[in-house]
Amino acid sequence: MPDLPRTHAILAEYAGRPPLSVLRGLETSARGLTEAEAEDRLLRQEADAPDGGTGRLALPRHLAHVAADPFVLVLVVLSAVTAVTRDPRGALLIGSLAVLSSLLRLRQERRAGRAAAGLRALSTTTATVLRRADPASPGVEREVPVEQVVPGDVVRLAPGDMVPADLRLLSSTGLRVDQAVLTGESLPAAKRAAWTGRPVPPPGPDAPLFDRPELCLMGTSVVSGAGTAVAVATGPRTHFAALQRDVPRAAPETAFDRGVRTVTWALVAMVAAAVPVALLFTEPGPTPWSHALLFAVSIAVALTPEMLPLVVTTTLARGAAALSRRGVIVKRLPAVHDLGAMDTLCADKTGTLTLDRLSLTSHLDAAGEPDDEVLRWARLNAWFATELVPEAAGDTMDDALLADAGPPPGDVRAVDAVPFDSDRRRATVVLRRDGRLGRDLLVTKGAVENVLPLCDRVRTPRPSPGTAAARDGEGAAARPRSWTTAGSADVPLTDDERDRLAALADERSATGERLLAVAVADRPAARRDYAPGDERGLTLLGFVGFRDEPDPSAPAALERLAGLGVALVVVTGDHPLVAVRTCRDTGLTPGRVVLGAELDDLPDAALDALLAPKDGTAPVFARVDPRQKARVVGALRRTGRTVGFLGDGINDAPALRAADVGISVTGAVDLARESADVVLADRDLSVLAHGITEGRRTFGNGVKYIRIAVTSNLGNVASMLAASVLLPFMPLLPLQVLVQNLLFDLSQLSLARDRVDPADLRGPRTFDARELARFAAVFGPLGALFDLAAFGLFWWLLEARSGAGGEALFHTGFLVENLLAQALTLLVLRGRGRRRGAPRAARTVVAAACVLALTALLLPLSPLAGPLGLVPLPLAAVPVLAAVLAGYGTTLVIVRNRFLRAS
Ligand SMILES: Nc1ncnc2c1ncn2[C@@H]1O[C@H](COP(=O)(O)OP(=O)(O)OP(=O)(O)O)[C@@H](O)[C@H]1O
């Protein structure tokens, strides 16, 4: 794969050349590649990819990764030490354990990987390319998965698109690209294809490529405007891929990662402490030094829940599969858990609290009276904005404006646009009309606060508006009566008038109406591209109003979320009064309303204080831009919350990435879906509630495994250490410790399929290392106590003191008792008990416990008994085992119930 200087050189070569020369160099045309050429290039591209284009780890590399696991390495070392101590059979068995556990993990991870890839494929990002059936045919737009874009493809860019390759622009309108992934710069950069006719010097080897206006690099995304470009480099050959290889960036840590890290470190500390303690305990007496070391290391292994990665992957994969059946696609497996851990959901209001079906409700002049003229200008703006930038952002408003409108008059055309974006909250088109040589007319519509300050004149109301227009018979999209803004009707905008207009807008917003201001400016035609700086000196014409009805299902869904312990924080780009009204209409009690502009002046500490939960209300953030949305999410996380962000727009992407779990919807723009961890088939809060419950179920079973494994291992190790002090020989051979550990771990894999107590689904759940420690501190010693009781009984009853045969008997008795006790532990500690309303254990768990118990009883009679150093138990052992286990089972249930009552 090319390195960074090489990708730089390839792009630099194409950057300075005229478009035609670029197309020739890539052996393509402005009408795109033919299907056959594209297929040919794709085959070559896939053959070239290190993973064969699957995106998954190749088998040998995956195997190497699994084999490098610390626990496997410990087993390998143990096997080597055993071989050195002249026990080849033991060495072979330990070696087989290493191979078995690696293969098991490999199989499970590949299965989970396949399932996750399948789920990701359900929400793939696509690119729009031009392809031709044959060289003579015209280019036709086709949506293809991003991985199928090949060099030479002509790509169309629209707002919300991820740039699918390294591209050289051929044409563009108001294109602005977010390059934060490459530059860290949050403000979008303007891109243009402009070719001056003279070759531009290519960028030097140190000049950053993202500075070049004619290059759009993979990894960046389109914020506004449109463009057509040709792909120069794709996939692993892009500048972004080379950059990643050079400086791999760690993904931000999620709630799930944090939890696993805490538990893992706690266990590593315990293991590290166990080895010297075990050595200390085994040193005296006749035990050879090498055996003592072996025993110490096997104790360390016994303490480690080595199946943790496997159990976690299995439970998550099962959770993800269950979610996909309910229309929730998980793109990153740990997001299943993060969904369950979420305690705060940030969402905008459109489509979450409202139906997202905007309808046009009013068109008013500056006095607040109905005026068709205003509607005509607003429609011209919407029509041409959509024409120039086909998938323009904020198109729900444009759609509503154009719903019953015909085409604009034939003598009007758009020459340029400064497209909508969430920072400016307005859209401008530049129109020319036949016969008006040398004049451009700017038509701007946008949020009242973002348009009014750009106006210095206002068109005064006309008498009996609407009637004249109706008589024109030109239809709603016809040319407005007065094309120029000059004339007696336009007067300078005074401060008093500004205040009055703002008050008028507030009054209507308070009813929930979403208002856009409409303004125009007549100028001498410009000979360059228009930019946001040209939106000034406008004449305000009036307003258009829309309504987005509250979603009738929202109150019930919000109640369900509240019942699950998830608080909603509304974060919207809309007007504060509209936001408050919508909250009230859906049964939410809005707390303090914070505007985006206020947010910028608020230091972190003040923001954190503002976010602290107060009297059941949550603050509402209104008129916030994309960066401010992300800041709110970051602040919530800082205050210890686990935050989900639900959004579908370009303006939501930074917040989706900043959240613990970014949630988007199938119909969202590519950028939003790409930035999300979870994609919902429908933007429906009750679907999300299902997702949260499933996440908690998954988490609940993972936690069960960790609790039971840590507790039981801790108990075992304690009893073995105690026994090694009391006995003149090791209580279990190292190999026996490992076999016992492996059998128990295998049985615990069944927990991935267990039922979960309803109590565990009620609130947000995260790993709680302290709770885990308390649990282990109570149940670990309890297990050890009964193990020691079994020792005592075996000691006297089996007369284990008498010679080597006695040792083997003791080992066998201890191993069998231990495994049977673990089967009981599995069944008892998995839940809260039937009397507390907990569901019965799943059949798989019961079966696993039975298999474990049967294996324990049959192992000493099997052919494996010899290599494992086991002997058949005498009949006298049966009552001992029965008494100890009956006592253990009963005590375990009693203590569990007490423990649960106390916690
Ligand atoms: N097509 C458009 N043309 C002009 N102005 C628009 C257009 N779409 C939206 N606006 C203005 O920009 C504001 C912010 O829009 P943005 O898309 O950031 O958030 P929103 O859709 O209003 O709110 P929400 O966050 O609830 O989805 C809108 O409230 C509106 O005033």
Automatic annotation (TrEMBL):
The record's annotation in InterPro entries points to: ATPase_P-typ_cation-transptr_C, ATPase_P-typ_cyto_dom_N, ATPase_P-typ_P_site, ATPase_P-typ_TM_dom_sf, ATPase_P-typ_transduc_dom_A_sf, ATPase_P-type_domA, HAD-like_sf, HAD_sf
Any one cellular-component term (Gene Ontology): plasma membrane
Q: Where is the Cation-transporting P-type ATPase C-terminal domain?
A: 729-887
Q: Which residues form the P-type ATPase A domain?
A: 123-246
Please give the catalytic activity noted in the UniProt record: ATP + H2O = ADP + phosphate + H(+)
Q: Provide the residue span(s) of the region labelled Disordered.
A: 459-492
What Pfam families would the database entry show? Cation_ATPase, Cation_ATPase_C, E1-E2_ATPase, Hydrolase
Q: Which Gene3D superfamilies match?
A: Calcium-transporting ATPase, cytoplasmic domain N (3.40.1110.10), Calcium-transporting ATPase, cytoplasmic transduction domain A (2.70.150.10), Calcium-transporting ATPase, transmembrane domain (1.20.1110.10), HAD superfamily/HAD-like (3.40.50.1000)
Molecular functions (GO terms): ATP binding; ATP hydrolysis activity
Membrane topology term reads:
Multi-pass membrane protein
- Parts of the chain that traverse the membrane: 66-84, 90-106, 263-281, 293-317, 772-796, 808-829, 841-861, 873-895
The listed locations are:
Cell membrane
Q: Where is the composition biased (Low complexity)?
A: 466-481
Q: Which UniProt keywords apply?
A: ATP-binding, Hydrolase, Membrane, Nucleotide-binding, Translocase, Transmembrane, Transmembrane helix
Name recorded for this polypeptide? HAD family hydrolase
Q: What is the lineage of its organism?
A: Bacteria, Bacillati, Actinomycetota, Actinomycetes, Streptosporangiales
